[in-house]
Specification:
The protein is α/β, with parallel strands linked by helices and 164 residues long. Helix content is 46%, strand content 20%.
Length: 164
């Protein structure tokens, strides 16, 4: 069984993330969505909320693709998380050249730590490439319309969070 790991903070999950998940599920039998616990970033949504959003959105994809998709919180090194879940492949999304520079360094470090895990880069479809969770949160916080960037359920969650 080929297992892939797609890590991120997913605060919140966007249509860009969902596009990468959909495309990555064609490459593996089981796709683990590694939900990073990063206390330094100060996420808008609690870990449990992010996991629930991912599970809700990915249930539809799993049914469509036939690939098992599961959410897995992690707080250790990415390469250790890959080993914990039995992943042979780490899936990373790229949006721009700036992403590539950072990801290039990460691949080198991960290969030095464990060269049995490959990293695969996927570019989101053109209409989703500019979507970043950080920008989505900022637009939503300022009352802007983010419905083009997230699912209806995530849009509602953002509205509720910023209405409080």
């Amino acid at each position: 069984m080929r297992i892939g790991l797609y890590p991120g903070t997913f605060d919140p999950i966007t249509l860009g993330h969902i596009d990468i998940i959909r495309r990555a599920s064609a490459l593996v039998d089981r796709l683990v969505i590694g939900v990073a616990i990063n206390r330094d970033k100060g996420p808008l949504f609690a870990l449990e909320e992010r996991v629930a959003m991912i599970e809700t959105e990915c249930a539809k994809l799993s049914a469509q693709t036939g690939t098992e998709i599961v959410a897995h919180p992690f707080e250790n090194l990415l390469i250790d998380c890959a080993q914990d879940v039995g992943a042979q492949v780490i899936v990373r999304g790229l949006r721009a050249v700036a992403d590539f520079e950072y990801e290039f360094q990460m691949v080198g470090m991960n290969r030095a730590l464990n060269d049995s895990v490959e990293t695969v880069f996927l570019m989101a479809e053109a209409r989703h490439q500019a979507i970043a969770s950080k920008l989505v949160k900022e637009i939503a916080r300022l009352g802007g319309d983010v419905s083009k960037f997230v699912t209806p359920a995530v849009n509602t969650a953002l509205k509720e969070r910023f209405a409080a």
